[in-house]
Amino acid sequence: MPNDPDLTRNQRLLRGVAIAGVLSGAAGLFAWSAGWLGAYPLTSAQLIERMEANAGVHPGYRRAHPRGICFSGYLEMNGSLAPLSRASLLEPGRVQVLGRLSVGAGNPHAADTSVPVRSMALLVRQPDGQQWRMAMNNPPVLAVRTPEDFYEQLGAMRPDPATGKSDPARVKAFFDAHPESDEFRAWAASYRPSDSFASTAYNSINAFLLVDAKGQRQAVRWSMVPQLAATPLGAAGVADDALQQDLLLRLQSGPLRWTWRFVLAGADDDVDDPTHSWPAERRQVEAGTLVVEQARAQLEGDCYGFNFDPLVLPQGVEPSGDAILRARSSAYAQSYRRRTLEGQPSSQHQGAQP
Prior knowledge:
Strand 3 and strand 4 form a beta hairpin. The two termini are 26 Å apart. By secondary structure, the protein is α+β, with helices and mostly antiparallel strands. Helix 1 packs across helix 3 and helix 1 crosses helix 5.
C-alpha cells in the first residue's frame, strides 16, 4: 500500500473500506455462538456461510486470516501485574509460547501485503497446566458492538461478482447507520502498515478482567508493542510472501521482541464496548516481554492444529461482558470443525518455508 501523505478524500474512504472489509471477515469469527444470537435467529452457521460467500471456500483453512506463519518463543515476565491476578503466568519468570502471525486476507493464497490488517495469536501453557490463549489484531478498536451488527457488516462488505470489490456506497450507508464506528474509521483512514510483522503492534481490542486472590477485579486491555522501529511498507515490488520471508530473515540474526503492555480501566470506562479506546491517561503497566525465537510455515508448524480461542483463560483472568468477546468460542470451534473435516491442504503456495 503506498505511503502517500496526500491521499485524497476518496482514497481515504477506499482505504477505510478495504480495512473494514478485511476486519469484517476477521470479526465475523468474533461473532459466533453455539445457537441463536441476540433478538433474532442468527446462528454461527449463518455467519460462517456469509463469510464464505464473501471470501470463498478454501478447504482446510481457517475462515478468517487463513494465511499465516507459526512461531515459537517465550514470555519473560517481570511480576508487575502479579498482585492483580491469581494467574501464575503473570508472576516473575519465563513461560514458553506457541504463536501465529497472519494477515487479514480471506484467501490463503493472497499476497502477505494485499491487506493492511495483521494479527498475532498466542497459546501459553502455565506450569500448572492451565492455558491462556490470545487473539490480537493491529486495529485498536472494532467498528461495531454486537454480533448482529457484525453480520450486517459482512453483508455490507459483500463483493460485487463483476468487480470483486465492495460497493463503497453500500459500505458508507452501513457506517453512517453505525456512528459508533467513528473511531475505527478514523484509525482506518490514517493507518499506514509497516513492512514487517516484527514492527507491528497487536491489540487485544476486547477487555478482560484480572482477578486477585481476594476476588477483586480490574478490567484491562493489552497490546504487544514491537521493540523494532517501524518502516513504512513500500508501494511496489513486494513479493507475495514478503512478510513471512522478512520474519525468517530477521530471526536468522536473533530473536524478535515485543513489550506486553497492559492498560488498566478507570472506574468510569465502559469495559464492554470494543468500539472506543480508553483515555490516554489511564495507567499502563509493562508486564513482560514476548521473545520470538523461531518461525515455520504454518502447514508444517504446530500452530496449524490449534484454535486460538481468546476465551481459553487461566484462573485469575476472566472475560468482560463484551457481547462480541463472549460470542467467539463456538465460532472458533465451528471453523475448526469445518477445516479439519476438509483435511489439511497441501503445502503448495503456502508462502515462506523454514
